[in-house]
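Problem 12. The chain below contains 130 residues. Write out its predicted structure in C-alpha cell notation.
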Amino acid sequence: MKLQIAATLATIAIIFSIFHTGCEKGPLNGNLDNMWKITSMERNGETTHPHQYYYHIYRDVIQLTAPGKDIQTGVLEYKGGILYLTFPISKVEDLAPWGIDGKNQEFKVKLSSNTLTLTSGTTIIKFKKF
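Solution.
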C-alpha cells in the first residue's frame, strides 16, 4: 500500500513538472525583451524628448504605446545586432511618433542591461528600461 501511494505521488510530481516547464516561455532576445521608455530621439539633427512613449518587446512581438495613442503592434526579428520590425496593419503616419519611418524598419542595436539605443539612418532613439 505504501509503495502504491509513493508511486502515485511520484507520478503526480512528474506530470506537474512537465506541465509547469512546458508552458513557460522565456525571452528569445535576451535583455532586449523588456519594456523600454524613450528618453530622447534625434531625427535629422533635431533632438526631442517624447513623454511616455514606450516600446514593449517580447519574443517576436513589439507593441508601441503612449497615452492617448492607438497601440501599434508588429512583429520583430533580432539577429546579428540588427532589429527588423514589420507593422503589417499600421499606417506609416501612426508609427512616426516612435521614430519609425515605414511599415518595415531596420535598426542597429546597442544594448546594455538598462539602456537601449536604436540607430537607423539619421534617427537615433535612446531608451531606458522601465
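Discussion. The beta strands are 35-43, 46-48, 54-58, 61-65, 72-79, 82-86, 104-111, 115-120, 123-129. Students who got a different answer should revisit the alignment rule from Section 12.3.
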